[in-house]
Specification:
Elements lengths: L2 H39 L6 H24 L5 E6 L10 E6 L5 H10 L6 E3 L1 E2 L8 H7 L4 E2 L4 H6 L2 H15 L6 E5 L8 H7 L12 H10 L5 E8 L7 H5 L5 E9 L14 H32 L1
Parallel strand pairs: 1-8, 2-6, 2-7, 3-6, 4-5
Antiparallel strand pairs: 7-8
Pfam families: Acyltransferase
Protein name: Putative acyltransferase YihG
InterPro entries: Plipid/glycerol_acylTrfase (IPR002123)
Length: 307
């Protein structure tokens, strides 16, 4: 290969990076100020129309990102599988669980969900409110923001536990005024081999799930949601860095969506105060995670067979 031929892929990557960076930056400066400006009006008067308009603006921003994926990353192949018994629509109310490997996971969720599901939110730390623009946007768009206290703080002041629960309930209940998708990464952090080994995880492809967040959301929203949805994301060529994705280094992404049936007992217990229920709920989540682990293995094997 000549030196000129070697330069072509590098120039192509640089051009792609500049294009993506310029378009996303421009789109953010175009869509961001209206969201923040409309959000300020909620300080004086709550308005469902303002909320709906902000969601439309946010979806417009996401549509620009998706356009880039479809037209600037043309070599990317998607393999999306949706269970037949899962009926998704933009007016639904969904809780979603997902495995977590990369910052790209959120982009995958946005790409998949834009035309199929309501805007996806997830629990965020209250401290993010102090990050300029980003924190305010999360608050305005209805992302549940929680002041989480440590076990040591709660031990010194037990009332903080009750306060945390009240804040979580209030944050979730605010979503009920509109369609929503509330995402929970049960692993709590991105999967790495080091974390997997440290945990001595019983799963091949996953870290141990933390059931508390899901139990909390189900306790507050469980009888009002249309479905508990489990999303599984597989990168057949390995979990990518965020920059790798936008530079076109990711060639294949597989996504599986399945509906999780909720046993009646799940919505009838108290995870925080009932040890027996808590143990049973954790066991149920562990079983779901074992099924998910097997699903990931089978999805990976499909691509190994193709190779």
């Amino acid at each position: 290969m000549s030196s000129e031929q070697k330069k072509q892929p590098i120039l192509k990557k640089i051009t792609r990076g500049l294009t993506v960076g310029s378009v996303i930056t421009g789109s953010t400066f175009f869509h961001g100020p209206p969201v923040l400006a409309l959000g300020l009006t909620k300080l004086f008067k709550k308005s469902r129309k303002v909320d709906e308009t902000n969601i439309q603006i946010t979806n417009s921003w996401l549509s620009v990102n998706n356009w880039l994926i479809d037209h600037v990353l043309p070599d990317l192949e998607w393999d999306i599988s949706i269970d037949d018994n899962l009926d998704l629509n933009l007016q639904g109310r969904y809780l979603m669980t997902c495995n977590h490997q990369s910052w790209v996971d959120t982009t995958v969720n946005q790409y998949f969900g834009l035309t199929r599901m309501p805007l996806t939110r997830f629990f965020t730390k209250w401290e993010l409110i102090f990050i300029p623009f980003v924190g305010q946007a999360f608050k305005i768009l209805g992302f549940p923001m929680m002041k989480r206290h440590t076990k040591e703080q709660i031990a010194k002041n037990p009332e903080l536990k009750t306060r945390d629960m009240m804040e979580a309930r209030k944050a979730c209940e605010q979503l009920l005024s509109q369609p929503f998708t509330l995402l929970n990464y049960l692993e709590g952090t991105r999967f790495t081999k080091e974390k997997h080994d440290q945990q001595k995880s019983p799963y091949v492809n996953l870290l141990k799930p933390k059931a508390g967040g899901l139990a909390l959301a189900l306790n507050i929203l469980g009888d009002k949601i249309d479905a508990l949805v489990d999303m599984t994301i597989v990168y057949p060529d390995g979990a990518p860095e965020y920059s790798d994705f936008w530079l076109g280094e990711v060639k294949r992404i597989a996504v599986n969506l399945r509906k999780i049936d909720l046993p009646e007992w799940v919505l009838a217990g108290n995870y925080e105060d009932d040890p027996e229920y808590r143990e049973r709920f954790q066991k149920w989540v562990d079983e779901l995670w074992a099924e998910k682990d097997q699903l990931i293995t089978s999805m990976k094997e499909k691509y190994q067979t193709e190779v």
